[in-house]
Amino acid sequence: MIKTIDGGITAAKGYKCASTRVGIKPTGTNEDMAMVVCDVPATCVGTFTRNLVKAAPVKWDMKLVNEVKKAQAIVVNTGIANAATGEEGMECCRKTAEAVEEVTGISSEMVICGSTGVIGPVPPIDKIVNGVKTMSEKLTDDSEAAHKAAEAIMTTDTHSKEIAVEFNIGGKTCHMGAMCKGAGMIHPNMGTMLGYILSDVDVDYDLAFKALREVIEITFNMVSVDGDTSTNDTVILMANGLAGNEKITAEGADYEEFKEALTVVATFLAKSIAGDGEGATRLFTAHVTGAPDYETAKLLAKAIITSNLTKAAIFGKDANCGRLFCAMGYSGAEFDPDKTDITMCSKEGSITLVKDGLLVDFDEDEAARILEPEEITAECDIHSGDAEATAWGCDLTYDYVKINADYRS
C-alpha cells in the first residue's frame, strides 16, 4: 500500500538539501539555487529530452547515468538554462561538480547538474560556485528546507511541486520523496521540466531504469502545456538502499511495489505541472477508453489536450465538442468515429455531448456549469477494445501570451 506522507525531496533516509539566492537574474528576490546530497552513493537513472538541442546539464547527466550509474549530489540553478552554450556550458557543469567535491568530498563524477531559464547565455559560474559553498553549510533533512528547495527551482511556476510517499518492501518501511518544476515549454518526449525523485530503496540499476522508463511513458510523457519540447527536460531517480530492504534484483512483488510508488509520485508531479501551465486556470484531462491498444488511446488523448482550439474552449467554458472530435480525427490513430462517445465531467457532474459519433441535444447552461471548476475531464470511449490512456493539459489563456512575450525580462 502506498501512503502519502508529509515532506518532499528529503523524505527518504539519507538525503539532505539546501537552497539560496545568488542573483543569476538581476531582478527579483527569490532563491534561485538548490542542492541535494546523499549520505552514500546512490543508484542513479534518468530520462531526458529528445530535443536535438540538448542543454549542457542534460549532456553531463546523461553521461553520469549511462557510465557512472551512481550519484550522490544534485545542484540546480534557475534563471539561465545553460543551453546552446557549447564547451563553456560543459565547463560550467564541470566547475559546479568540482565545487561540490571541494566542499563535501563527494566525487565530481557523481554530481547531477540541472539548469532552467533562458536559453543562450552562459551561467555566471562564480555565482554558482559561491552558491554551492553557501548551501553546503546549510544542508538539512527537515521538511521546510525541502519545501524551500522545491521553490528555489521554480521559474514561471506559481507554486512548488513536491510529494513524499511511504511503502513496504520485504518487511522494511521505504520512502520516496520528489520535487519538480515546470509550467511552460512543456511537451516532454522522454517543459522546461526538471524532476528529481529520491528513494531509500535498494534496487538493481537495470530494474530501476526499466521502472522509470515505463512510468515516464504513462505520466510525464502524457503532459502538454504548449507543445514545445524543452532543451532541458530531465527526470532523475536515485535510490540509496538505506531502507535496508533485500535488494530488488528481479521482477516480482517487491519490484511491482517499488514501481507502483514511483507511479504514484510521477502521476502527482505530472498533473501538478499540467495544472500549473503558464497562465492556466484549469487542469484539463483527456481519458480515452475502449481502444484496441494503448498506442491508439495515447495518440487520441494527447491530440485532445494539445489542441489549441480545444484548450481555448476549455478556457471559455465552451462545450464545443466538435473541437475535441476534430482533434481525435487528425491524431493519426485509427478508430471508428461512428462508435465514439464524448462526455465532459467535473465535480459538478457530467454531460454527454457526442453519442455514436453524433452531437446530442444538451443544455448549454448545464454544460457551462460543469465546465466551471478548476479540473475538467473529457471521457472519450471509442468502443473498440479494452485499452485506455490518460493525458493531462491545461486551458489556453490570455496570460500565456503575456508571460511568454516578457519571458526574458
- Order of SSEs, N→C? EEEHEHEHHEEEHEHEHHHEEEHEEH
- Helicity, as a percent range: 25-40%
Question: β content, as a range?
Answer: 25-35%
Main sheet, how many strands, which sense, barrel? Answer: 9 strands, mixed
Which features would summarize this protein structure in a list?
409 residues, alpha+beta, 9-stranded mixed sheet, 6-stranded mixed sheet, 11 helices, 15 strands
What does this structure look like?
With 409 residues, this protein is of the alpha+beta class. It is 33% helix and 28% strand. It contains eleven helices and 15 strands. The chain has helices at residues 56-68, 86-104, 125-136, 143-152, 205-218, 253-275, 294-306, 308-315, 321-329, 364-370, 398-405, and strands spanning 3-5, 15-20, 33-48, 70-80, 111-118, 161-169, 172-181, 194-199, 234-239, 283-291, 341-346, 349-355, 358-359, 375-381, 387-394. The strands form two sheets. Strands 1, 2, 3, 4, 5, 6, 7, 8 and 9 form a nine-stranded mixed sheet that branches. The chain has a six-stranded mixed sheet with strand order 13-12-11-14-10-15. Helix 1 (56-68) crosses helix 2. The longest helix is centred in the middle third of the chain and has 23 residues, at 253-275. It is globular and about 70 Å long. The N and C termini lie far apart (46 Å). The model has no long low-confidence stretch (mean pLDDT 91).
